[in-house]
Amino acid sequence: METTLATTQEVINRAQFFDHWQGHRSLTRKVIEAFPEKELFTFKIGTMRTFADMVGELLAIAAPGLGEIATGKKAVLNEAIDFKNSKREMLRLWDLATVAINKYWDQMGKVDFQQEHLSFGQFPGTVQSALFYFLDNEIHHRGQGYVYLRALDVEPPFFYDR
Amino acid sequence: METTLATTQEVINRAQFFDHWQGHRSLTRKVIEAFPEKELFTFKIGTMRTFADMVGELLAIAAPGLGEIATGKKAVLNEAIDFKNSKREMLRLWDLATVAINKYWDQMGKVDFQQEHLSFGQFPGTVQSALFYFLDNEIHHRGQGYVYLRALDVEPPFFYDR
């Protein structure tokens, strides 16, 4: 009984967390698609970055960051991704990251989410805190992308459209 | 051993999830504090709402939504919160919500996070999906608040400052 209780009382299980994360990534993909191509690479508000630069950060983090956790091999944080000013190229790299994340997740079976983990040689925490950072940071910047779309008079996708 | 493995391999435990959520709420409070009072209630981009209106939504969801889960008593979604155009009043209501959330969380001991739950009589899912919606939705709108602050030439708090 003890075991059953502990299992059903998990906050979120691994499969759910993975679906949740990839669901959010699917929504971010829709936000990229919604951008007019020119403004994706040029539009900004205040001293902020373009949405393309933010997407560069998200791509620099997600698959390489999970890869470090799944394989134990260190990765370098490289946000300067060359999209060649092309939305199609950005979406291609996004989809490659999705495939890589799926592959790494399949290798996570023996990873303890509570173990200490240093991301990119500079961000200390645990596997749990790292994964939540990856997710939260994407929601945060995608929310900013929503404002850019609204400022450009483009209707963003629904928040629950994963 | 089986039990130990299951426990340490939880994605995130209850105490961690709670600290994570309240940490995010603490950051949102700092974003409210960073707004110039007039613009908090008047500034918007495109067809979007003011940040005060978004905060009204967040307050309508967090404590009442958790209260439904913790107590089983139905709540009504009421986003039209009267802040009296006062940042101090908004922060007072924010802090009251923090206290209410702490109180409700203490009553969550017997709640199965995987059980079905209908939020506000209209949003079906599970306790898990409801709690993640509360959290994700706040990160999303707070990210939008960051853009408003940048557009107003105000430095937002650091994302990791919880």
From TrEMBL, chains A, B:
Signal peptide span: none
Keyword annotations: Metal-binding
Binding site for a divalent metal cation: 141
Gene3D superfamilies, per the entry: dinb family like domain
Highest taxon of the lineage: Bacteria
Family from the record: Belongs to the DinB family.
This protein's name: Damage-inducible protein DinB
Organism expressing this protein natively: Croceivirga radicis
Lineage: Bacteria, Pseudomonadati, Bacteroidota, Flavobacteriia, Flavobacteriales
